[in-house]
Design a protein that fits this description.
It is a single chain. The protein is an alpha/beta fold. About 15% of the residues lie in helices and about 30% in strands. The chain contains nine helices and 34 strands. The strands form nine sheets. It has an eight-stranded parallel β-sheet with strand order 28-26-25-24-23-34-31-30, covered by helices on one side. The protein has a six-stranded antiparallel β-sheet with strand order 3-2-4-10-7-8, with no helix packed on it. The chain has a four-stranded antiparallel β-sheet with strand order 1-12-5-9, with no helix packed on it. Strand 21 and strand 22 form a beta hairpin.
């Protein structure tokens, strides 16, 4: 039986060595913290297996205390380190134990050692990084092993040749991040946080780990379901393949093998999935997937994964208006703008339990969708969405701001494209391509969002058509609330605070109509705010009752808008973030500002309303 659970208890996680004295660590600063901050174990932070869509047993977690230094760029290397930093928390965060800003004129250095497990010594060893913001260089035993640019995509280096035969192995990571002084994708990070802009995030902010692989191994795969044909297409990528090597791909429903296909060499196979159980928010069923690599009938490598049979598309309703369809049926998608920030970990949740909490709490409130706003999460977050039945709209992290914004669709003469440099454009394209590739296999993701509110929006038609061609299996929301151009599947209006929609008579024939942001109803709660005063919301309230009353009045408008052609809406937002107090939850996740049960009842009435049921009939 294949295991899909991702809370792995691998023996290799217990083999980490070379960590510094644990009593040297404590959270930095005096800002509010989440309940999970007290559960952070500096000996073993975030110990869970980091890549649930491609699981191997032979791995070793390198999270923990590393040495660090912040030095001017001109310094070639640190002569001595300045202290300890808890990886994988960004250096500016409380949970890093440092709480310092780096900036464009300085470099952040990391160092740690480890002893390789005996079981690794006949294998290739890959050094894996979940994410490092932004440019990094890595050395192992003083030998350069690779460089990477991009703050949101995982990457790895083959470090086998740099390893010593025995004893301690040394890793050095050098990071430079210009934050808002550079044109690179950075989301909400700025050097001087205020309003909707937040603290910079520099350096390692996702799990670092080692993976042992054979000389010939499965390097990756791409899975695409087709519910109309009842098949799953699986394309494999292999390293160092030999003539005659065979790939076996099998699909499982519990202990029952549903399908199996064999192929010589890399390539694509089609698995027939008869009478498929379709994935949806009401039934988030996941099949298990196993990919094995055989040589002369003997297993060389194997990975386990999962998949879902689901389809996202668009189609006209009885009035000729385009609707967003899930499994060929109209499902009104409603969820919060989720920024994924934490008062103690910034980009990084304190624990895996905390990471999962936001997803499950969102589901329990009766939402069926999350818009992941100008940030990318660790892989485990997307798996939790897959398991919970949460539809995900994935934004590209923004950067290189400066062009003019016109949020009203159909208005000419104000909006402008950003005139990006060649380097800026290349950075955007490379990272967006990698994000889409790395997240492709998560079935919960149904919409790609290349631009938000004209933040760095450029070459809109070209970028959107390129995004659509890169992944024809999903919908593309051209520019959420941004400068409108007639391209892509979706037209998206932002309006605060009340819910409105693009005019169906003008735009509904060719594009899905959505309200990409509304609400922003604020309630600062003493003892749960980032700062004591000068917090804000788009409209502020003094108590929970008044907040809920206004929120409910807004939500109760949706059935009428759905009748006119609205397919989805996004409420701002899941939690407070720094000085923004627009969250349904406080930033520390300790207080629900509106009752969960009442929210679910309210949302169910909309998602299951007659306006939704009869739209296509």
């Amino acid at each position: 039986m294949l295991k899909r659970k991702i809370a792995f208890a691998s023996l290799s996680m217990l083999l980490c060595t070379g960590l510094l004295a644990q009593d040297n660590w404590k959270p930095a600063g005096n800002k509010i913290r989440t309940p999970w901050a007290e559960k952070v174990d500096p000996k073993n932070p975030l110990p869970e297996y980091p890549r649930p869509q491609m699981v191997r047993n032979a791995w070793m977690n390198l999270n923990g205390l590393w040495s660090y230094s912040i030095l001017p760029q001109a310094v070639a290397a640190p002569s001595a380190h300045q202290g300890n930093i808890l990886v994988p928390f960004a250096v500016e965060s409380s949970l890093s134990g440092v709480g310092k800003t780096v900036g464009k004129d300085s470099v952040l250095w990391y160092e740690r050692s480890f002893t390789l497990p005996a079981t690794f010594k006949k294998s290739k060893v890959l050094l894996q990084f979940g994410a490092v913001d932004w440019r990094c260089e890595v050395l192992v035993n003083d030998q350069p092993v690779g460089k990477h640019e991009g703050g949101y995509d995982p990457f790895s280096f083959d470090i086998t040749a740099a390893l010593k035969g025995k004893g301690a192995q040394k890793i050095v990571v050098k990071v430079w991040d210009p934050s808002s002084d550079g044109p690179q994708p950075r989301g909400k990070q700025v050097n001087n946080p205020e309003g909707i802009w937040y603290t910079p995030v520099t350096g390692i902010w996702q799990t670092v780990w080692l993976e042992a692989v054979p000389t010939t191994y499965i390097a990756g795969f791409k899975q695409t379901p087709d519910i109309d044909k009842g098949v799953l297409q699986v394309a494999t990528e292999l390293e160092n393949i030999q003539p005659g090597d065979e790939v076996v791909v099998s699909a499982w429903k519990g202990q029952e093998k549903v399908a199996e296909q064999r192929q010589t060499g890399a390539g694509s196979v089609s698995l027939s999935v008869p009478n498929a159980r379709l994935w949806s928010p009401n039934d988030p069923f996941l099949y298990d997937l196993k990919i094995s690599l055989l040589r002369k009938g003997k297993k060389v490598d194997e990975i386990s994964s999962y998949f879902a049979m689901r389809k996202i598309s668009m189609g006209t309703d009885k009035k000729g208006i385009q609707r967003m369809l899930l499994n060929n049926e109209f499902v009104f998608q409603y969820g919060p703008l989720d920024q994924g920030w934490w008062p103690d970990g910034l980009y990084t949740a304190p624990t895996d339990e905390a990471l999962k909490f936001d997803v499950i709490q969102t589901r329990d409130m009766g939402f069926n969708m999350i818009r992941k706003h100008v940030k990318v999460e660790p892989a485990r977050w997307y798996t939790y969405c897959d398991q919970a039945g949460m539809l995900v709209w994935q934004d590209m992290p923004s950067g290189d701001l400066g062009n003019r914004w016109e949020n009203r669709p159909g208005i000419y003469g104000r909006a402008t494209d950003k005139d990006r440099t060649a380097a800026s454009e290349a950075s955007f394209r490379e990272e967006w391509k990698e994000i889409m590739k790395d997240l492709y296999n998560f079935p919960g993701i149904v919409v790609w969002v290349p631009f938000n509110e004209a933040w760095g929006q450029f070459k809109t038609k070209e970028i959107v058509e390129w995004t659509m061609a890169n992944d024809p299996s999903r919908l593309v929301n051209t520019a959420s609330g941004g400068n409108f151009e007639p391209v892509g599947h979706i037209i998206d209006l932002h309006n605060y605070p009340e819910p409105l929609m693009p005019d169906p008579a003008l735009f509904g024939k060719d594009r899905v109509l959505v309200l990409g942001e509304f609400g922003g109803l604020g309630l600062p709660l003493e003892g749960h705010t980032w700062q004591d005063k000068n917090n804000w919301g788009y409209r502020s309230f003094k108590n929970s009752d008044d907040l809920y009353k206004q929120y409910a009045e807004f939500v109760n408008r949706f059935p009428k808008l759905i009748e006119h052609g609205l397919s989805a809406a996004v409420y701002t937002q899941t939690t407070d973030v720094e000085v923004e107090t627009n969250g349904i939850m406080t930033y520390d996740r300790k207080v629900m500002k509106m009752p969960v049960a009442e929210l679910k009842t309210l949302h169910d009435k909309v998602i299951k309303s007659d306006a939704v049921k009869t739209a296509l009939k």
